[in-house]
């Protein structure tokens, strides 16, 4: 199994899921979230995909109780929508509102709102992920989570490790290249010597 | 001027009589005499020089490496699930699996832990069984009734040779054991792990019991000192996952206790991971460290 230190370094990256764009606590009246977009980026599906890959995990971490379902389909020309379901003020929802599971084959279409629920839909097509996230935060009323001092220190540690890693990687790349070049030169010299021998 | 000097020097060398050696020994002891620095010349063939040492032998460890876990951050099951559910958000919950890797303190050689477990909540549900039994016998009908996808003896061997393998588990009735040996299918079935053998309890006299054991049962085995097994689907609740992990750990402990006492074998670390997520070392607790979070919060639709 991989050594403890390397695994520990990997786990400090968890700080990135606790902080960053999308780390926000949703208000009590948000009941569920649904995203619908295509597998690939052409046709304006890059922004939605980025939101799902980068921001949705943070949102899910801070709101573990709220179902977040993603429906991906092969239809690149299809719509890209983000639906936020709200509880109507004063209404109580049934405990077992049917909710489809996420699907990679386009089977999890956005369900119609249950009794006492309303839907707010954001069109994500042809938009950048930052713009989508901003609109989502404004319309849902999510409160961003403040970074704790411990997490700030951890973030700095992660950055530092990345910087030193980049330096080391560059050094090793140069060393490897020097070895490669030398080998190439020796091989060339050998082939030239063989050619001269053959000519004599 | 220079040319004259050189000329004189060559003349001096031509002298036939060598100058007499000084006969008087110096009055100072030898060790106090100023030493003239004579460079020591070494030759490659001269025997001296660098002594060649045999290449350093790498220390061969008898056991797999065991790490000090004190710097390792460890998580309760619910905390690990919270992170994993965040990493896997939006993935189909029946496709994404929870996995455990259980590291053992063990020797590199010696017996390995290997067994089959029926988890309280099965992870895989696509077991397709093939049965080798004498053709046109009541056993064949029994196997078909038990839900085998391929039944037979020589006809089945022939279809296996042609690459037609519709099953992912294969069992053999003891009556057909000799026919199986003669069929020489080890080359095809062996690499797929399908070859029936006494060791894996897939050569049997009781088809019904074996088929029932195989359906919904998962095999695990220790490889490089680690037992790895899928223990749940992403859609499982914390309680379901807890039951599966505990069942596995209990059976594994029994397996470890069954190993001969002369071999060291003990549990070292349990790591929970998922298809796309990182690995979380578990501390054995169930409830989350954050008291505002309840296990029921982690069972919403994914």
TrEMBL record, chain A:
> One MF term from GO for this chain?
structural constituent of ribosome
Which Pfam families did the record assign?
L51_S25_CI-B8
This protein's source sits in the domain of life called Eukaryota
Does the record bear Ribosomal protein in its keywords?
yes
UniProtKB keywords? Mitochondrion, Ribonucleoprotein, Ribosomal protein
The subcellular location is: Mitochondrion
A single Gene Ontology CC annotation of this entry is: ribonucleoprotein complex
List residues of the Ribosomal protein/NADH dehydrogenase domain: 40-143
Q: Reply yes or no: does the keyword Ribonucleoprotein apply.
A: yes
* Protein's UniProt name: CI-B8 domain-containing protein
- Name the source organism: Chaetomium fimeti
TrEMBL record, chain B:
The Gene Ontology terms for molecular function here are: structural constituent of ribosome
Q: Is Protease a UniProt keyword of this protein?
A: no
Transmembrane as a keyword of this entry, yes or no, is: no
Cellular-component GO terms for this entry: mitochondrial large ribosomal subunit
Which superkingdom heads the taxonomic lineage of this protein's source? Eukaryota
Alphabetized UniProt keyword annotations? Ribonucleoprotein, Ribosomal protein
Q: Which Pfam families match?
A: Ribosomal_L1
- Similarity remark: Belongs to the universal ribosomal protein uL1 family.
What is this protein's record name?
Answer: Ribosomal protein L1-like protein
What is the species of this protein? Chaetomium fimeti
């Amino acid at each position: 199994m991989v050594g403890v230190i390397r695994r520990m370094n990997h786990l400090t990256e968890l700080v990135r899921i606790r902080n960053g764009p999308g780390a926000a606590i949703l208000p009590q009246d948000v009941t569920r979230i649904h995203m619908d977009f295509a597998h690939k980026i052409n046709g304006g599906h890059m922004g939605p995909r980025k939101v799902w890959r980068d921001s949705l995990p943070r949102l899910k971490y801070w709101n573990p109780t709220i179902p977040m379902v993603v429906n991906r389909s092969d239809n690149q020309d299809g719509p890209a929508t983000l639906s936020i379901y709200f509880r109507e003020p004063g209404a109580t929802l049934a405990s077992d509102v049917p909710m489809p599971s996420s699907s990679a084959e386009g089977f999890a279409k956005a369900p119609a709102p249950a009794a006492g629920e309303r839907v707010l839909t954001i069109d994500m097509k042809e938009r950048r992920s930052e713009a989508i996230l901003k609109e989502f935060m404004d319309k849902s009323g999510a409160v961003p989570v403040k970074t704790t001092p411990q997490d700030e220190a951890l973030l700095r540690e992660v950055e530092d490790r990345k910087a030193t890693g980049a330096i080391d990687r560059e050094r090793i790349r140069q060393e490897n290249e020097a070895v490669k070049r030398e080998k190439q030169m020796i091989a060339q010299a050998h082939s030239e010597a063989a050619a001269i021998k053959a000519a004599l | 001027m220079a040319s004259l000097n050189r000329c004189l020097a060559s003349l001096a060398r031509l002298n036939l009589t060598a100058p007499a050696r000084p006969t008087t020994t110096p009055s100072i002891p030898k060790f106090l005499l100023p030493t003239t620095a004579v460079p020591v010349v070494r030759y490659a063939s001269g025997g001296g020089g660098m002594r060649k040492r045999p290449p350093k032998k790498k220390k061969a460890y008898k056991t797999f490496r065991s790490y000090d876990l004190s710097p390792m951050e460890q998580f309760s099951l619910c905390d690990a699930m919270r992170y994993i559910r965040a990493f896997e958000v939006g993935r189909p919950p029946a496709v994404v699996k929870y996995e455990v890797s259980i590291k053992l303190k063990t020797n590199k050689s010696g017996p390995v832990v290997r067994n089959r477990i029926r988890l309280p909540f099965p992870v895989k549900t696509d077991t397709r069984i093939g049965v080798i039994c004498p053709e046109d016998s009541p056993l064949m009908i029994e196997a078909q009734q038990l839900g085998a996808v391929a039944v037979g003896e020589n006809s089945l061997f022939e279809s296996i040779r042609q690459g037609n393998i519709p099953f992912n588990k294969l069992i053999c009735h003891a009556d057909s054991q000799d026919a199986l040996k003669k069929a020489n299918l080890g080359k095809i079935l062996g690499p797929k792990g399908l070859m029936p053998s006494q060791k894996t309890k897939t050569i049997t006299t009781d088809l019904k019991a074996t088929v029932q054991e195989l359906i919904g049962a998962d095999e695990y085995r220790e490889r490089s000192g680690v037992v790895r097994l899928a223990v749940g689907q992403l859609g499982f609740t914390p309680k379901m996952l807890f039951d599966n992990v505990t069942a596995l750990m209990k059976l594994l402990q029994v397996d470890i206790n069954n190993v001969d006492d002369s071999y060291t074998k003990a549990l070292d670390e349990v790591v929970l991971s998922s298809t796309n997520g990182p690995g979380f070392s578990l501390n054995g607790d169930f409830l989350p460290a954050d008291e505002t979070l309840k296990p029921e919060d982690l069972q919403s639709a994914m």
